[in-house]
């Protein structure tokens, strides 16, 4: 049994040796002696080239995607900047449109009194707080004069107290130096309206016999020539009656929000007797 196995083993070894010699001395191997090693190497090289090519392709794809994302980020930033600019332009146009609408409304309101009324923009306020006043962009060159009345649709704003070539200063009706003749619309009782600072007015020299109550509207009387008749001045917020006094005083809330003035109407001086512009 042992000899049989050894015999078979020797036979296989002899056959393997003969096969190797036949392959080794074949014409192809004689021409290319490294063919046995070359073929596996070529296979390995081919596989490596394909792998490297795949890596290069993947790297190129990732690079392209990164560049695209970078460009997309730049594009998004550019678009955001453009949107911001457009929103600013829209806001600016809306402001211009709103201001134009307010000027048109003021101009139409002024024409109910006279064609000589002019619209002006408020361009400043008294920085010292000594006076309650505003600066407008109309002056001597526009025909503005001292003591001209200034108003808006809601009512009296003040009067011109200083005139420059291109600008003018308007003393607000709430200033302590301001005085405007007025009357109580319901009872037709007259008095003088003075500013007391802040957002309050005082109506003085009102007869104790006058029929007045909180909430009554006080309007211009047209007696001084600064304002035409029936412009609103304010509403009665409190009544002060002193014992044995021949007159009473009324506290008023101004008809106009004097802290939010943007455009105003400058009214020409009127002759009280003839009711014509002077």
If you had to describe this structure to a student in words, what would you say it looks like?
With 278 residues, this protein is an alpha+beta fold. The protein has two domains: 2-56, no CATH class; 118-277, Thrombin, subunit H (Beta Barrel). The protein is built from three helices and 14 strands. It has helices at residues 2-24, 27-31, 35-111; strands spanning 118-125, 133-136, 149-152, 155-163, 168-172, 179-184, 190-195, 201-207, 217-220, 232-241, 247-254, 263-267, 270-271, 276-277. The strands form three sheets. Strands 1-2-5-4-3-12 form a six-stranded antiparallel β-barrel. The longest helix is centred in the first third of the chain and has 77 residues, at 35-111. The radius of gyration is 49 Å and the shape is elongated. The model has no long low-confidence stretch (mean pLDDT 80).
Task: Give structural attributes.
Thrombin, subunit H, 6-stranded antiparallel barrel, 278 residues
Largest sheet: 6 strands, antiparallel, barrel
Give the SSE string: HHHEEEEEEEEEEEEEE
Tally of alpha and pi helices: 3
Shape: elongated
For this structure, the CATH topology of the largest domain is Thrombin, subunit H
Strand order of the largest sheet: 1-2-5-4-3-12
Kindly, what is the distance between the CA atoms of the first and last residues, rounded to a whole number of angstroms? 150 Å
CATH architecture label name of the largest domain: Beta Barrel
């Amino acid at each position: 049994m042992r000899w049989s196995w050894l015999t078979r083993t020797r036979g296989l070894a002899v056959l393997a040796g003969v096969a190797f010699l036949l392959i080794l001395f074949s014409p192809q191997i004689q021409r290319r002696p490294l063919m046995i090693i070359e073929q596996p190497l070529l296979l390995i090289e081919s596989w490596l080239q394909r792998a490297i090519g795949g890596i290069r392709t993947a790297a190129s794809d990732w690079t392209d995607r990164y560049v695209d994302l970078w460009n997309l980020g730049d594009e998004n930033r550019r678009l955001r900047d453009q949107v911001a600019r457009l929103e600013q332009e829209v806001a600016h146009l809306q402001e211009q449109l709103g201001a134009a609408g307010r000027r048109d409304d003021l101009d139409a309101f002024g024409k109910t009194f006279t064609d000589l009324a002019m619209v002006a923009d408020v361009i400043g306020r008294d920085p010292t707080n000594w006076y309650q006043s505003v600066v407008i962009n109309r002056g001597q060159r526009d025909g503005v004069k001292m003591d001209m009345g200034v108003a808006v649709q809601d009512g009296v704003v003040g009067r011109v107290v200083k005139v420059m070539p291109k600008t003018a200063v308007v003393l607000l009706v709430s200033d302590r130096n301001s005085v405007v003749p007025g009357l109580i619309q319901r009872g037709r009782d007259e008095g003088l309206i003075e500013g007391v600072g802040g957002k309050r007015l005082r109506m003085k020299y009102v007869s104790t016999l006058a029929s007045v109550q909180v909430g009554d509207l006080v309007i211009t009387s047209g007696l001084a020539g600064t304002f035409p008749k029936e412009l609103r001045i304010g509403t009665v917020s409190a009544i002060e009656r002193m014992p044995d006094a021949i007159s009473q005083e009324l506290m008023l809330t101004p008809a106009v929000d004097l802290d939010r003035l943007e455009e105003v109407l400058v009214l020409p001086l009127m002759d009280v007797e003839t009711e014509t512009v002077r």
